[in-house]
Amino acid sequence: MSYDRSQRFETRAIHAGQDPDPTTGAVITPIYQTSTFAQEEVGKHKGFDYSRSDNPTRSALQTALASLEDADWALAYASGLAGTQNVWYLLAPGDHMILSDDAYGGTYRLVSKVLARYGLEYTMVDLTDLDAVRAAVQPNTKMIWAETPTNPYLKIVDIAGMAEIAKGAGARLVIDNTFASPYLQKPLSLGADLVLHSTTKYLGGHSDVVGGAVIGNDPEVYDTLKFHQNAAGAVPAPFDSWLVLRGLKTLSVRMREHNRNAAKIVELLSNNPAVEQVYYPGLESHPGHEVAKRQMLNGFGGMVSFTTAGGYAAARKFVETTKVFTLAESLGGIESLIEHPGEMTHASMAGSGHEVADNLIRLSVGIEHIDDLVEDIEQALAAVAPAKATV
């Protein structure tokens, strides 16, 4: 997957793997909507034989993804969880994995309800506490799986520190970089072995496609994952690949707007009597702020979480009161979304000991005009404001 490493991020997002079509001169990569390819003779073809194995549109996407993470290769999948499962094929029954105690609900569901049935052992730890991570390492620990920022509490994991622990344990460090995107954070440069994305989110950026990606540098790991990608078959369709490729072109522009809008919303939420606590790594009061400043290069992202002072009832009323912020799962699109994690994205963690607070709200701050977003949050805050004492 070759690309011009001397070019800047914004240029690679538009051009890496996306030369004009040699047959027609089309400037935008075509959608190769085909399941199979003609062979000149048995076993001889032009690099493609069957679209589960590879497809020119998907190949272009994979080159572009690798370029944005400054990596040697990338593999695309039908969803973020498909990519997650493909990475976990690197493990064997009896292997142990360390997982964040603040993991995405779908990740937790996959490891606890599916892979644990096949002998995968796991321990959930606060990954912001490096001493706790060291204490959790076992002789059979083969992988550390970290999100940063985490979903939904936006904790910040010290990637370089975690990489040192993983290396000492002979384990691979995998970073879910979905919340940050490669525009804000480059985990491989900090020592991670693999990077995972739900390309559904910021990379696609328009809430119209579901996809995933795994990115790295190790050629042997690539060969193993490429085999599993083909053998298990959870690959994105050509049109899905094209949609993500289209989204990458404006990633830098969108992320700058997400950053600016989120910072304004955080300012509004902070010190409001209807809000109990705001979780955002851009706040100086955030426990991971200094680490975030070191490893998040271009801002702190568009994700904001907070708890309501009025408890569960206020949280439910808030998410059902906004008008510009749409009540929906997912994140990272151009439109602003709001959700109640405990009953939506993280419902699978109920009763696990790692459930999220029932007054927690998660915002994916979009790129609408900031005044409209502020007015929407203000009216929702007014709806759940604590009653004033009467004399």
Report on this structure.
The chain has 391 residues and is an alpha/beta fold. The chain has two domains: 9-248, Type I PLP-dependent aspartate aminotransferase-like (Major domain) (Aspartate Aminotransferase, domain 2, 3-Layer(aba) Sandwich); 252-383, Aspartate Aminotransferase, domain 1 (Alpha-Beta Complex). The protein is built from 13 helices and twelve strands. The protein is globular, with a radius of gyration of 21 Å. The chain starts with 8 loop residues before the first helix and ends in an 8-residue tail after the last helix.
Model regions low in confidence, pLDDT < 50 over at least 5 residues? none
Question: What form results from the Cα inertia axes?
Answer: globular
Query: Average pLDDT, to the nearest integer?
Result: 96
What fold name goes in the CATH topology slot of the largest domain? Aspartate Aminotransferase, domain 2
Count of domains:
2
Roughly what percent helix? 25-40%
Radius of gyration: 21 Å
Major β-sheet, in short? 7 strands, mixed
Tally the helices: what do you get? 13
Number of E-type strands: 12
Instruction: State the distance separating the first and last CA atoms.
Output: 72 Å
Which architecture of the largest domain per CATH? 3-Layer(aba) Sandwich
CATH class of the largest domain: Alpha Beta
- Biggest sheet strand order reads 1-7-6-5-4-2-3
What is the H level of CATH, i.e. the homologous superfamily of the largest domain? Answer: Type I PLP-dependent aspartate aminotransferase-like (Major domain)
The secondary structure category is: alpha/beta
Listing every helix as H and every strand as E from the N terminus to the C terminus, the arrangement reads HHEHEHEHEHEHEEHHHEHEHEEEH
